[in-house]
Amino acid sequence: MNNFVNKIITILKYCHFPGKLELANGGTLFLDEIGELSLEMQVKLLRALQEGEIYRIGGKKPIKVDIRVIVATNCDLEEMVRKGDFRSDLYYCLNIFPIHVTPLRERKKDIPLLVYTFLHELGGKYDYKVSTFNQEVMEVLDTYQWPGNIRELKNFIERLLIINESDDITASEILELLPNHNDHQARSLVDEKSNMKKERILETLEQTFGNKSITAKKLGISRATLYQRLKKYEING
Q1: For the domain 2-94, what is the CATH code?
Q2: Quick check: helix, strand or coil at residue 27?
């Protein structure tokens, strides 16, 4: 009895509030991850699109709506239709003008711009003052396949900013954090660049007779970054 009463109270509470479809009346509604929509909700969406009317929760009077719907998904909807997980009539109703966005692994040239955008967006939140990564880091990011596409790249950059204690993010740190990234070419590249960086530090220290301030200035890095690299490459001086 209590469950029934609670259900009635819930219906009465929300039946006077417009839902997303009603709020979008006369405009455009974007539905992300449409492939995750339950079969029950697919029926309701199909009715709204075909008949141009909806019902509020607990309502008995239809409400006319005129909306344009844009949907997105990373699922294979055709395969879901074949398996019975997605209604074929809704699929054909939505599939009027499909736009296929290629995965990030097929447009690696976009990675630098995306990195810049995410660093600008997240930098203030995590007090990160650098607007891009060094070339070595970018080359490692370019070797990864990014199965989660742009969302994975953004989340990865945010994770980097959270755990990194300085503005100097290295390619080795990237390799350690990227999931299942055992690309031999990428690791060879990092090892080669690390050896070159170590040699350059040693040469500059020799030229400056071990003066850390001048060495850091000639290398174009801060003293703190220089000390981090001295420790990393086990350079005494």
Answers
A1: 3.40.50.300
A2: coil
